[in-house]
Amino acid sequence: MAAVVGTTSRRSLSGFYKMLLVLLSIILLLASSALALFFSREPSRAQDAGAYGAVAASALGLWAAVRTLAAGSAETLSLPWSVPLGSLSFCLDPLSALFLVPVFLLTGLAAVYGVGYLRSYAGSKPLGLAWAAFNTLTAAMVLVFTAANAVLFLLGWELMAAASFLLVLFEHDKAQSRKAGFIYLAAGGAGALLLMAAFALLGAGSPLLDFASFRTPSGTAASAIFLLALGGFGLKAGFIPLHVWLPEAHPAAPSHVSAVMSGVMIKTGIYGLIRVLVFLGPWQEWWGWTLLAAGCVSCVLGALFALAQHELKRVLAYSSIENIGIILAAVGLGMVGAAHNADRLAALAFAGALLHVFNHSLFKGLLFMGAGAVLHGAGTAELDALGGLAKKMPRTALLFIAGAASACALPPFNGFAGEFLVYLGAFKGISSYPAVALAGVLAGLSLAVAGALAAAAFARAAGAAFLGEPRTERAAAAHPPDGLMLFSMYALGALCLAVCAAAPLLLVPLVSAVGAGFGGGFGAAAALEVPGPLVYISAGALLLAAVAAIAAVKRRSMFPAARTADVPTWDCGYAAPTARMQYGASSFAQPLTDFFQPVLRKLGQYPVIAEYFPGKASFSTEAQAVVYNAVYAPAAARIRDLAYRFSWLQHGRLQIYIMYIVVTLLGLLLWKL
Amino acid sequence: MEIVKPLTQYLAALLLAPLLPGIINRVKAFFAGRRGQPVLQLYYDLYKLLQKAPVYSRTTTWVFRAGPVIGLAAILTSLAVLPFAGRPSFLAFDGDFIFLLYLLGLARFATVLAALDTGSAFEGMGASREMQFAVFAEPAFFLGLAALARVTGQTSLAGMFGVLTGDLWRTAAPVLALLTASFFIVLLAENSRVPADDPNTHLELTMIHEVMVLDHSGPELAYILYGAALKLWFFGALIACMVLPRHSGSWAGDTGLFLLAMAGVAAAVGVVESVIARLRLIKVPYMLITAFAFSTLALIFQMGR
After folding, report:
1. Can you give the pLDDT of all 305 residues of chain B as single tens digits?
2. Which domain holds residue B68?
3. Is the Cβ–Cβ distance between B119 and A582 less than 8 Å?
4. B77 touches chain A (CB under 8 A)
5. B299 neighbourhood in chain A, CB within 8 Å
6. Which residues of A touch B156 (CB under 8 A)?
7. Domain count, chain B
8. HSE of A85 in the Cβ direction (CA atoms, 13 Å)?
9. ipTM strictly over 0.90?
10. Is B74–A544 a contact, with Cβ atoms under 8 angstroms apart?
11. Closest partner residue to B139 among A445, A552, A584, by Cβ?
């Protein structure tokens, strides 16, 4: 076999084991997929096959990815492939590795969690198929992050979409899951079409669609490719207005899959966009502004929509849109900065974006697992049916609140670290680069507004689910998650704390990933700009933790055995409060959702009091999928009407379809003659 | 000994902060023609509360107990970053004000969760309003800081206030005046003062911050009250640094002037509370949007200069 093996460093083969480990993990994942499918009649064996395979592959891959980040060098492998334009080319550079670390971390932990989570479905659902799809999804993501050939990349891309489609349909007996599945399929198909066009333009004139053989396109072509890639990758990343599938599909999947989809799968869109940006050569300023605008809109509206949702997993799904927006805004800010030679600013923004990619996967994984524990324990994740779960599942409550604090970027949790770098980049622009000041203000302001809205959304979600008194019988009878589920959540929670405390350790990975992803110049600038903030993030977090510890110890020393009298909440002297008097999720959000009603357009039914002694009254509000209803549903109806006009082409008779093929082939032949 | 001065500054803030509510109360008493509470009243209250055993409702969990501790810790940490009389504290770094903004967010988050943990309708109401106002106050505060960064060309609070001299006031007076006004409105809202909230109100339905801590008692209430005084100090110090650009090189002189300015800020809050009625709840966002507009105007002026 004529294998072309190369590394960028002189040590040639010594670092090559990393590439082999990653490939081995793909093979392991696919093999365990097949095994899980083989055992589909024996749920416990299928669970074992899937989970052990996923964990083993994670361990191998994680080792390789971490070593790649530490070494900062790239490994490539290229084998011939019989597929036209394709080659089995792989590249494992620090950018790939930075995206691979969360993939392996989260899928490994999600597999452990999944064993506990799926146990109750044994017998009623095909667990073998679920595990096969889960491990195939992981393998496909690894393929996407390492492929260095467009055909191979798209193969991984489509495999990823297909596997996750199966998982979204896990509970296909629910109409909502089926709807989610169809929207997801349509979005995935549209995205892939745009990507094929983008890659075709990029690879025009080269014999193989290898990334290395792409030539820098000219100005107009580059802009066209940028827009195609933005659409194609944006549909996967899920920024507004390309997000419509996300809040439907993520909640529909089983919770450990939601964790993986929200935590890492949507990042493939960000990864693809960054890769394509490098192929496009010198950036035009308006690309940066486009990304910045899309990011700002996504982060603010994502947080606002999250505030209006009534279901815990939908809150989390919209929060993912917010976080993708933050990442995108940071990349956009960096590109605008780069266009004005503000490399220091750009390096900070890029480093912040990549750090947030990593951080978001940790806390969003944790939050979805927490939501899964609620769903598993109480049988529902409707916020207005929950409450008081902190007493039934105290550990889950602690971990969920920690995840929520991370998601609101509150120190000392990890969400703060990435956003801090982005803010700092924005303020560098505001204070020192007049040409970039406006971009800095926009990015920083959006982050600030989104942060305040996200804090409201997460305080509401955590409060309604875990605090106060249970609102329903189901919530009162909730049971805690089992040890495996808790283990995964504890691991992610500990990582959320560790990232901020040990931020300086992230310097080398971040700098090498920025260099590999955006260009060496930015890597060098990041090496100058990033160390200081990372040290201060960790100093601030540690100081905060120390002060909190002192305050807590001091508090305990005053009244160690605190008197817990068996009394109700004071509630202004009312002696018989009931759980229904509590402020619920809807009432908590009402002042803000009313204020933003022009954007949210929630539907509501309000009681009208017309008599002196009114009888029973009811009140309900419903959060709408605003963009879907306003844009996509009418557009889909239009397309369907158009398609009906051509329905005379479709007779359902095989002969006629064969005739179409023959006529097309003849036409092509004549055209070439 | 370079560590002694920051340490003294920090301890001074911790010790003197409970004076500010006392000053405000005395000013209000003066306007109302009363004698008023002793200036040291909060110290007495804190001492008394620390002796009392707390009572917990059976609905509450560890979240309720953790709220005041985390809230106080966040404010204490923020004071270690905040400049004192325009001089850096222990932990001054590029972008330190972002850290401060999020520390205040952490304190708010902990307080709100502790309020929701009681399962009380009133505390839920307060929590909801607190979060609502934060959505308007934070952008105003953020844009104000952005404008300040633009005026001074600095990205740390100590840097900004180090550059903010009388000369800068002469050249950029409109910008700085707008920013001071904006920060003052944020101070009133963040510290639940009139016209955003009334710390002395007696009707739970109309409370915001006070209603969130109805169920806290004993040392936890002491933590909350002390945290509130420190937060007032925090915002007061920002405004004092704005209006009192550093003149001399003498540390003692600057510190004295700064403390005087802090007393002035407290007196100004007292005057505002005496002459303005409280806004209706639904009008409070408009007040904060005014602050936002001030900050935006300041930024536009500065970018146009």
Report:
1. 577 888 888 999 999 999 999 999 999 999 999 998 999 999 999 999 998 888 888 889 999 999 999 999 999 999 999 988 878 888 889 999 999 999 999 999 999 999 999 998 889 999 999 999 999 999 999 999 999 999 999 999 988 988 888 888 888 899 999 999 999 999 999 998 988 888 777 777 778 888 898 889 899 999 999 999 999 999 999 999 998 876 667 888 888 889 999 999 999 999 999 999 988 888 999 999 999 999 999 999 988 87
2. 4-304
3. yes
4. yes
5. 441
6. none
7. 1
8. 17
9. yes
10. yes
11. A445
